[in-house]
Amino acid sequence: MPASRQPGFASSLRREWARLLARPWDLALITWLPLATAALLWWIFSAGLPERLPIGVLDQDQSAPSRQVVRWLDAAPGLRVLERYADEGQAANALVGGHVHAVVQLPRGLAAELKRGRAGEVLLLHNAQLGTHSGLVQRDVRSVVGTVSAGIELTARNKRGEPMARARAGFEPIRTALVSLFNTATNYEQFLTLSLIPAVLHIMAVAAGAWAVGCELRDRSLGQWLGTGPGRRASVAALLGKLLPSWLGIGAVGSAALAWLSLARGWQPAGSLAWTLVAWLAFAALSIALGAFLAALTRSLRMALSATGFITAPAFAFGGMGFPLVAMPALARAWALALPYTHYARTQTEQLIMGAPLAYSLAPPLWMLLATTLLLGASGALLAGTARRPETWGAR
Amino acid sequence: MRTTARTRLLAAWAATLRAVLRDKGVLLVLMVAPVIYGFFYPWPYSGEAVTRVPVALVDQDDSALSRQIGRFAAANPRLALQFVTPDERQARQALWQGRIEGYAVLPRELKRDVLRGEAVVVPVAGNGAYALLNKAVLTGFAEAVGTVSAGVEIRRLQAGGMGTAQAMASRSPLNVRLLALFNPTEGYGSYVVPAVALLILQQTLLMGAAMLVGGWAEQDELRATPTAWLGRVAGLSCIGLASGAFYFGWVFFLQEYPRGGNLPGALLLLALYVPAVCALGLLVGCWVRDRERALMVLLFTALPMFFLAGVPWPAEAMPAPLQLLRWLIPSTLGIQASLRLNQMGASLAQVWIYLAALGVQLAISLLLLSLLARLRKA
C-alpha cells in the first residue's frame, strides 16, 4: 500500500459524514439524543419550586392556637397537610414509611402555656434523609409558626397598651432580609437545569469524541482514514474534519438549550449571554478533543469510554454547583479544579446569574481553547504513530 | 427432563461467571468500577456540612452596636469573616472574584434608629446560584443579627418592668424545635451517597451485562434456551449481589452513613433489585448488540435517572407523565426502597409496593428474554 495519499480536512469530513449517514444511531448520539436528554432534564424541573409537599400533623392540644397553626400550615403554598395522627406511634410510622416528609407536633398544654405568658414550643420532626424536601418543609413551617407567633406577640403588646405601629417595630428591632443581589428568584428550574444540561452534554461530547476516533481503531479502519504513513499535521487536519460534525451537533444543542433557558423562561440573564455561548462552544470543543485524545492514547474504544465515564460522570458531583468547592477536602477540590466542567459552570454562573463584569469571566474560555489545541495536537501525533503500526489496531 | 434443565441452568450460570472473568472489559466495569466509585463519590462530601463560608461585612455605621454584630458574625461557626469594609462595591467585587460567598450591609444610622425604636433591616447578599452556600450565609448572619436584636428587645422589655424569663417568653411566644430524623447530622454526603450507591450498582450492572451480550453476539454465542438465559441472569446476579453487599455493608459503614435499619429487608431488596437490573441489562445488550455502544449509551443516562428517582428533587414537583415514567426505571424503585430500609428502618410492609414493582420488572424482562430465545430459535 503506498503511503503517498495524505488525509485532509475535507476528505475526512466527507468520510465522517458518510459514516454518520450509514449509521443512524451514530448520528442520533450527536443530534436528537442530546436534544431529547436536555429536554427531559428541563421537563423534570419545569414546575419550578415544588409545591404542596405532604406533611402530617399530630395535634395533641386541640386548642384555638394549635388549630390556627394547622390551618396556616395547610394554607402555605409549599405544604399540604396529608394526614392527621391520633398518637405518636402513628406519626412515627408515617415518617418511617416515608409517605410524609415531616410531622408537626403540637404538644398538650400549648394554649395554656401561651395564656400564662410563657413560651410555647411546636415540634417539627423532619426526614433529613431527603435533604431537599426537608429543607423546603423547614423553611415553610418556620415561616408559618413565626407568623402565628408574631400575631400572638402583637396582640399581647397591644393589650399592654402599646400602639400597634410601635409594637410592630418593637418586636424585632433588627431584622435580616435577603436582597436579590443577582437575579435570585430562588427558582430551582433556573439553577439546576442551567448547570445540569451542560453536565450531561459534557458526558455526551467526550463520549462522541472517543467514539469518532475509537471506532476507526476498533474496526481496524485507521488506514482507510489516515493512510498508512500520515504526517502529524495531516493527522490533525483529518482529526478536525472528523470531529467537526460532533462539535456542530452537540454545540448547537447546548447553545439552543442555553438560549431557551435564559431568554424564553421569563427572566433575563444578569450578564452576557453571548460570552456564555462562547464559553459553552469552547467547553464543547474541549470535551470532544478530550474524548479523541483518550481514544488516541489508549488505542481502544472501550478503554477510552471507560475513562470517559470516570472523568465525566462524577463531574457534576465535583463541580461545586450542588455541594460547594469551599467545603470539599483539599485533594478533592484539586481534582474538581482539574475538571473542565467546574470552570465552565463557574463562568456560566458568573455571567448568567451573578451578572459579573465580563473581565471576571474572560480567562476560562481562552484556557479551554488552548487546552483543546494541545489535546488535538497530541492526539494527531499519537494517531500518526498508530497509523504506522497496524498490528496495534483493533484492541477491544 | 428436570435434571437436564437443572444442568443447563448450572452450566449457563458457570459459563457466565467464566465469561465475566475472562473479559477484562466486563471485569473492569462489573467488579473494579463499583469499588473505585464506592470511594470516589463520597470523597467531595466527606466534610458533610458547609461551615466556615468566607463572607464580608459592610459596616457603614461603625458604632458599638454594628461592631457587636461583627463580633457575633466572626464567632459564628457557619461563617468565616474575611474583612470588614464601609464600601459595598469592594464586597461585591470580592463576591465576583469568588473570594467571599456573601456579605451583610449594616446601614448608616443603624444604632440611632435602633435607639429611637425604629425597625432596622440588615440586607444580606448571598450568592443565589449556590443553594448550600446561600443558606449558610443567610443563616449565619441571621443568627448573628438575631442574637444582638434579641438582646436589644429584652433590655427594652426589662426597662418596661418585666423579669428576664418573662421578657424572653414575651418576645417570641411560639417557637419551632427541629428534630432531624434518620440523618441526624443533616450531612450532605449521608443524604446523597446512599441514593447514588443504588444508581452506581444499576449502571455498572447494566453496562457489564450489555457488554457481555455484545461479545456473545460477535462470537455467535448469543443464542440460548430460556433456561440458559435464566442461568445467565443468575450468574451476573451473583456478582451484583457481591457489589450490593459491598455498598450496604462496607461503604455505608466506612463513611459512617445512617445504616442497618432493616437488614433482612435490605437483603431482600438486593435479591430483587440485582436480578431485575441484570435481566434488563441483558435485554439492552440484545437490542444494542455492540459492546462499546452499550457502554456509550449507558454513560449519559445516569444523571437524568438520578434526578427522576425523587431524591435530589421531590417527585411531587415533577410533571404527571414523568411521575409515571420514573416507575419504569429500576433505580427509582431501588433508591426509594433502600433509603426506607437501610436509612429509615422501614418494615417490609411499608416498602412492599417498590419490591412488588421490582418483581414485576424482573418477570417482564425474563419473559422477554425467553420470547427472544424462542424467536431466535425459529
How would you sum up this structure, described in words?
The complex is a heterodimer of chains A (396) and B (378). By secondary structure, chain A is α/β, with parallel strands linked by helices. Chain A contains 17 helices and 5 strands. In chain A, strands 2-1-3-4 form a 4-stranded mixed β-sheet, with helices on both faces. In chain A, β1, α4 (64-75) and β2 form a beta-alpha-beta unit. In chain A, α9 (188-218) runs antiparallel to α16. Chain A is elongated, with a radius of gyration of 29 Å. The two termini of chain A are 25 Å apart. In chain A, 51% of the residues are buried. Chain B has 378 residues and is α/β, with parallel strands linked by helices. Chain B has 14 helices and 5 strands. Chain B has a 4-stranded mixed β-sheet, with helices on both faces. The two termini of chain B are 22 Å apart. The model of chain B has no long low-confidence stretch (mean pLDDT 89). At the A-B interface, α3, α5, β4, α7 and α8 of A face α2, α4, β4, α6 and α7 of B.
Which geometry of chain A do the CA atoms define?
Answer: elongated
Helix segment count of chain A? Answer: 17
- Biggest sheet of chain A, open or closed, and with what strands and sense? 4 strands, mixed
Mean pLDDT of chain B: 89
Strand-residue fraction of chain A? 5-15%
Element order of chain A: H for helix, E for strand = HHHEHEHEHEHHEHHHHHHHHH
Structural class of chain A: alpha/beta
Number of alpha- plus pi-helical segments of chain B: 14
Give me the secondary-structure category of chain B: alpha/beta
Determine Rg of chain B (CA atoms, Å): 29 Å
Quantity of strands of chain A, as a count: 5
Largest sheet of chain B: 4 strands, mixed
Question: What multimeric state do the chains show?
Answer: heterodimer
Q: Which descriptor suits the 3D outline of chain B?
A: elongated
Largest beta sheet: strand ordering of chain B: 2-1-3-4
Low-confidence runs of chain A: none
Mean pLDDT of chain A: 89
Number of strands of chain B: 5
Largest interface, chains and sizes: A-B, 122 and 116 residues
